[in-house]
Amino acid sequence: MTALIIIIAIISVIIMVLFSFFTIEIVYDGSSRVKAGVGLIKFNVYPANKKASMLSSRKYKKLRKATRNRTIAPHTEKTDKIETSDFIFFTKTIIKRLDSYLEYLHTKIVKLNIDVGGEDAAAASLKYGIVAQSVRLLYELLDEQTALSADSCDKISVKCNFLDNFTTIDCRIRMKIRILNLFRIGFETLAAHINFNSDNKE
Known about the structure:
Layout: H1 2-18, E1 21-28, E2 32-38, E3 41-46, H2 50-66, H3 74-97, E4 106-116, H4 121-145, E5 147-148, E6 156-160, E7 168-178, H5 179-201
Parallel strand pairs: 4-5, 4-6
Antiparallel strand pairs: 1-2, 1-7, 2-3, 4-7
């Protein structure tokens, strides 16, 4: 009887693990971070040092506050554009690297708030158009390639701020996939690899 209880307990634990979600969370609020985990167990993927990441974020906010009402040198706008495009590229790269998993991937935009600033009204308007188009393309990519949460669209806000020189991004995108599907994809990939090698030998 005891052995039966142990076996049932083990099977129950295995089922619970297989139907648990493996989660990846992309965060950007002046510095890029990637977190991963299963259930309540979470860890930092990038950067590995959480303290260093927090320090970077604080420095960014301090710099932004100090230069809010100051005239920004010409190179600052270029740096600002690079940071914005880096964020879009950063997210797209992760999505594309998970190409084999996209069919089973559940995606949720927890928040995506972008305030677009510029040296003057013309520069801000031009950057706003570029950023708004990039966000639309990112949303379409997630919607077409993954199971995107229905309320994600309501979490997106892109505004043009004529009173600020910086473009600020506050973003959190969460992706999750069942561990059972990870095993399924692994077995399918292994089977395809074996078949491919068999065909080549023949």
